[in-house]
């Protein structure tokens, strides 16, 4: 395994106009190195949607992104300081520009959820399984079941 691409990657950021594009490149690089390029489109879409929610719903736009390589695929977590919990809308205005992010996440991810933090904030996470994840024994170590960290 390449020492520059560990099983875990985290970044603290303030989400600006160009942040999603740069983060997608980082995500793609890690997935390529982890030999899971087939997940790139889905994971990039999920990351983009979670960062868009930070822009829309978190006043200071600050968050932490965490990528975890797992035995069966990848887990992504976005943690922010907002107490507002996301929920998928059951009534969408077909003319509205937003409101579909969690529906997209639900469609593309194998699992997703929200973990509120005591004292404020939350982590929104999703997991995507790779059909080839077990094929490469050199993918160790994995970050499976590693608890997310919040500073």
Compile the SSE list and pairings.
Elements: E1 8-14, H1 19-33, H2 40-57, E2 62-70, E3 73-80, H3 101-108, E4 111-116, E5 122-129
Antiparallel strand pairs: 1-2, 2-3, 3-5, 4-5
Helix pairs in contact: 1-2, 2-3
Attribute tags:
151 residues, alpha+beta, Heat Shock Protein 90, 5-stranded antiparallel beta sheet, 25% strand
Care to describe what's here?
With 151 residues, this protein is of the alpha+beta class. Strand 2 and strand 3 (73-80) form a beta hairpin. The chain has three helices and five strands; from the N terminus they run βααββαββ. The chain has a five-stranded antiparallel beta sheet with strand order 1-2-3-5-4, covered by helices on one side. The chain starts with 7 loop residues before the first strand and ends in a 22-residue tail after the last strand. Keywords: Kinase, Serine/threonine-protein kinase, Transferase.
CATH superfamily: Histidine kinase-like ATPase, C-terminal domain
Distance between the termini: 28 Å
The helix content is: 25-40%
Q: What are the low-pLDDT stretches, counting only 5+ consecutive residues below 50?
A: none
User: With helices defined by DSSP (H or I, 4 residues minimum), what is the helix count?
Assistant: 3
Largest sheet: 5 strands, antiparallel
């Amino acid at each position: 395994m390449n020492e520059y691409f560990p099983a875990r990657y985290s970044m603290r950021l303030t989400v600006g106009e160009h942040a999603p594009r740069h983060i997608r490149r980082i995500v793609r690089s890690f997935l390529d190195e982890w030999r899971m390029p087939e997940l790139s489109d889905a994971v990039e879409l999920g990351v983009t949607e979670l960062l868009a929610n930070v822009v829309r719903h978190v006043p200071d736009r600050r968050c932490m992104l965490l990528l975890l390589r797992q035995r069966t695929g990848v887990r992504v977590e976005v943690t922010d300081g907002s107490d507002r919990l996301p929920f998928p809308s059951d009534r969408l205005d077909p003319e509205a520009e937003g409101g579909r992010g969690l529906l997209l996440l639900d469609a593309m991810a194998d699992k997703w959820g929200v973990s509120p933090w005591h004292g404020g904030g939350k982590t929104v996470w999703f997991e995507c399984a790779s059909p080839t994840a077990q094929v490469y024994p050199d993918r160790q170590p994995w970050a499976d079941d590693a608890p997310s960290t919040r500073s």
